[in-house]
Structures are given as structure tokens and as C-alpha cells.
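Justification of resources, computational component.

The compute hours requested in this renewal are based largely on the per-chain cost of generating structure records like the one below. Each record pairs the submitted sequence with a full C-alpha cell output. That output is archived, and it is also reused by downstream analysis tasks.
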Amino acid sequence: MKRRASSKLLIVCAVVTVLWSVAFGSITSAQDDPIPLVIAYGSDIDPADVADLVALDYLEEMGYSIEVIEMTADSNAVAGMISGQINIGSIGLPDAIKAYHIGVPLKVIMPSNMVGEFVLIGQPGIATVEDMVGKRVAYHGPGSGTEILPRMLVRQTEGVTEDDMEWIILPESPNRAAAMQAERIDVTALEFADVLTLREDGRDYGIIGSMSDIAPEAIYTSWVVMDSYAEANPEILNDLAVALAKGYAEVAADKDVWMAKALEVIPVPEERLSQTYDFYLEIGMFPQAPFFTEDVWEAMNNFFISVGEYEDPAPYEMVVTDAITAAEESLAAEAE
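The structure output for this chain reads:
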């Protein structure tokens, strides 16, 4: 049974894991007890993570005991992996690549969210990029998808420049939604669930564009691991990839599976969750095979370089191709 762990519990878990390894060898040698895994997210669990949680249920059925840690930033998840307190992280792919470029030996196991779920919305009457001129545009922080989306839409629109509007940093989607409701900002990128919440007051907040409109190749989040952990535990990574592939395929094919897990973990009304799932399916949120081909990797690199996320392409060698192969072969076997 997955549960969210506190920082103290995380430390205890790490100590127990080390002692177990010293006494009995690799944790993968355990015959009867579940294999412990500490998995971290770079932010709070939200609807975009529901498909992951379905997949992690399958991983538990394969003999794993999973601790899910919710961190405040991707960098914290990376720090936890460096220290060894966290085994695997689900973080923004650009952030993983930037960490790699500064010397953190990360490996990428599988994609998580194929596109950013953010949509750019405006106050009533602001429905196009041209309508954004002279307006206050808020985003989560520098380099985030919530900044990339509005800036890319502006750059793609003739006669409008980024200097034509006021740019404001305002972290977290719920905070920006509240600012929209209070009319303290005019335009922002929000998670789709927050857009639905805003619309409940009867105001017509128009959708100006989405990440899937401007960059369907920009894989948003991924599962990552330290190179040393990947080398020591290839079977664990293969099992994770197989479970993820199964979970993503399941939720893409069966809305009821996604809804059951969402209602269990996300405190959002059922109708809004239903609409969120439909939106995710429409934009291609759930990863499907083939995963991380070289062509997909190159297209992802080209986009993030073009928007200034990083300068040098990430090498395809970052990808744990054995895990990808295991996932794809498992799906093929189930389809027979």
C-alpha cells in the first residue's frame, strides 16, 4: 500500500535500507519481503500524476513496497537521489537534462507526461494573443512550462512582442487561479483542473492556447534515476518500466480505471475529474509505445533548445534503453 512519507520517515527508510543491504546483500535478493522503493515527485501529487499511481499499483503487485514523497521542487528530488535517500524521481525532463549538463549523472527511464497540461487563459474578453497587449501575464517561474507557453504563443503571433505586456512571477497554479478570480492578473497558464474551478463562478475565461498546440514534441516530465542506481538495479528499472507501460495503456483505454484512482487520491469533484481525463486524452498526455525513440528524443531536444531551456542537446545515452525494451516487449506480449 503506497503512502506519502514525511522527511523523518524518509531518513528512517534510507537507514533501514542500508542496514538491510549490509546484512543480506542487494535488496533485490530478498525472497519473501517486498522490495522497498522510495519515489519522489518534484511537486504535489495532482491529476496529471494519476496514471502514474495506477502504474505503481501494478508495480506493488509485482512485489514492491513503495513510498511516494512529494517534494517542493524538482531540484529537491534530484538532491534526494544524489544523497541516496530517494531511489527514483518523477521530474520535469528539461530539469533532468539541465542537471545532467552540470554533472549530475542522471538516467531517464520512461516518459511520464507527454505534454504539459497547462492551458493559457484570459479574463473575459481576452481570447487571443492580440488581446494580451497591455495585460498582466503571470507564470510559475523562469523556464517553467507556464512561462514557455505564453511566450511561445506571443512569438508565433505577428505584430505582438513580449514587451507589449507585463510579466509577473506567481508560483503554483492554484495561486494564479485565485489571482485570476480576484482580477489581480489578466492572463496565466493553469492546470486544466484549475480552469474548471474558475469557470464555476459563471465567468467566461477563454482558452488562448495549450502546450499541445505549440509543442506536442516537448515531453514534459519523466522518470529518472542516478546512473549508479541504474547500473546496480537493472531489474528494478525494467519492472518499473513494464508497470508504467501497463498503467499508461490501461488508463488510455479505460477511463473508469483513471477515474477510480483519481477519486481515491485527488480531492476534486467527480465531474471536474471526468472533464480533466477527457482533456488529457485529447492532448495525448498518457505515454504510449514506442517510448523515447531516437527521433522523439531529438525532436524534444530541438524544442527545448529553441526556447532556451538549455544549449547543448542531451545525449540519447541518457535513456535506459533496456528498460524501454522491456516495457515495449511486455506490451507486445499482452497484445498477442
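The chain is about 50% helix and 15% strand. The chain has two domains: 3-115+218-335, 119-214.
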